[in-house]
Amino acid sequence: MPSLRNDLWEVQSPEARKIRRGVSASYDLPGRPDSPWPTLPKQLVRLRDESLMELLAEIHAWMAHVGGMLFLQEIDERFHQEELDRMLAQAYESASGQMGEKKSETSVTRAKALRELDPDVQEAKSELRETKGKVQALEYLHSVLERNSFLLSRELTRRLGRVDKEVRTARYSS
Description:
Elements: H1 14-26, H2 49-97, H3 105-117, H4 119-173
Helix pairs in contact: 1-2, 2-3, 2-4
C-alpha cells in the first residue's frame, strides 16, 4: 500500500488554487474515498462476485480521486515552469545588462551562468522539481489503479463467460 502523504495532494500555485475553485464551482472533483487504498487479494478466483464488484468500485473511486489530483498538479507544474522561465529571462537580462553593450560569446555564456546562481531561480527550480515529482507519483498511482481495474474487469468477464457456458451446457444436456 502506498504512503499517501497529505502534501502529495496539496496544490501550491495561486493559478491551480483558482482553477480548483472554478472547477469545484462547476464540477465536483472527487474527494478522497472513505475506503483505504485498495489492494488486490492474491487469489482473485476465491472472491465472491459481490466482493469483486465492491473492490472494483473502490478502485474506480480512487482512480477518480487520483485523476483529479493529477489534473491539479499538472496545472501547478505548468505554473512553476512558466514562473521559472520568467525568472530565467529576468536574471539573464539583469546579468547581461551589467556587462554593457558588448555581447560576445563569452559574455552571453557568463550571463547564463550568473542567472543560474540567482537564489530566486534556484528556488523556482526546486519548486518545479518538487511539483514534477508529485505529478510522477500521481501518474504512477493512477497507472497502478488502472492496471488493477483492468485485471478485475477481466476476471468479471471470465466469470460471466463461464456462466453463459454453464447455462448452455445445462440446457442441452438435460
